[in-house]
Amino acid sequence: MAIATTVTVETNIDAIRELLRANPRTTFDEVEEKFGLSRDILPKISREELSVQKKFRHFVPHQLTAEQKQTRLDMCRQNHSMWKNEGQKLIDKIITWDENYVHS
């Protein structure tokens, strides 16, 4: 059972950072058990202190580079232009995917 704590200790943050670097698939349950932190503090530590989020069953950096931001902006502009030209027909043609599934 985890010990409830309201203090985020820098040594815990550094240790969690190293744990996630070694194994990005580490779960909150594993971190909670290993460090004795309360479950409600872990999302705050991951998001605010480590700048990572749990996605696709593993932790990934949440910060985007300037190039990634520009690419997203360019794609949004391209999609907006296509929407203006095609409207609902565009939506009917969209197929999306992630690591595990194809959605249409």
From TrEMBL:
InterPro entries: RNaseH_sf, Transposase-MT_Hybrid
GO biological process, one term: DNA integration
Single GO MF annotation: single-stranded DNA endodeoxyribonuclease activity
Superkingdom to which the source organism belongs: Eukaryota
Signal peptide: none
Any one GO cellular component localisation term in the record: condensed chromosome
Record-linked PANTHER family: HISTONE-LYSINE N-METHYLTRANSFERASE SETMAR, MARINER MOS1 TRANSPOSASE-LIKE PROTEIN
Protein's name according to its UniProt entry: Uncharacterized protein
